[in-house]
Amino acid sequence: MTIILHHLENSRSQRIIWLLEELGLDYEIKRYERDPKTQKAPASLKAIHPLGKSPMIEDDGEVIIETAVIAEYLVEKAGGKLGAPADKKGARLYNQYLHFAEGSMMPPLYGLLVVGRLGPLGWPARKPVGQMVTDLLVWLESELAGRDYFAGSQLTAADIMMSFPLEACQVRAGLDERYPNLLAWLERIHARPQYRTALEKGGPYAYA
C-alpha cells in the first residue's frame, strides 16, 4: 500500500519527503498551502487528524503524527535503512539527535519567530532567546568537529531530523561562517540527489 504524506508548504514535513526518497519507499504527497495572512495550516488538515498538524502520514489504514515517530516508523518499514548505527555510541547519538531536533532546537527557534512578530513588545525577550539558540549552535559545532554526520560517518534519519532546525537557523538565527562544521554538514546534505529530488516534489520551501 502506498504511503500518503500530508505535506504543508515551507514546513518541517519537507524532511519526510527527503527521508522517503532516501529509503526508496512508495509514497504519494498531498500538498497543503498556508493561509497567506496567518501562515497557519489550513483547516482541511483537521479532517485527517484533529490536531491538523503536518507532517502526518497514512499507512495501512492508520494516521501517524509527530515527525520523529514518523521517521522511526519509516526506517523500520524500510528494514532499518538509515537507522541507528551498530555501535553503542552511534546508536545513542542517533536516538539523541532524532529527538533533539524537536525537543531542544525547535522551541527557542519558535520563540524567536514569535518574538519577531511582537515588534517592540518582543524586544526584552529577543536577547535571551537568541542566546539560547547561540548556545545550541556552539555545542552542535563542537559535536561535528570529529565526524561528518550527527551519529557517525554515515547519513542517518537523525541527520534528516536535524536538517529543518539548522536550515532555519541559517536563514534567521545566526548560523554563519562562525560555524564551519555545521555549514559543511549542510553542504553535504544539500548535495545529495535525494535531497534535491525531495525539494522538487515538495514545492515551496524557504530554508534550503
UniProtKB/TrEMBL annotation:
Ranges of residues in domain GST C-terminal: 87-208
Organism: Parasphingorhabdus flavimaris
UniProt domain GST N-terminal: residue ranges: 1-82
Protein's recorded name: Glutathione S-transferase
CDD domains for the chain: GST_C_GTT1_like, GST_N_GTT1_like
Pfam families in the cross-refs: GST_C_2, GST_N
InterPro entries, alphabetized: Glutathione-S-Trfase_C-like, Glutathione-S-Trfase_C_sf, Glutathione_S-Trfase, Glutathione_S-Trfase_N, Thioredoxin-like_sf
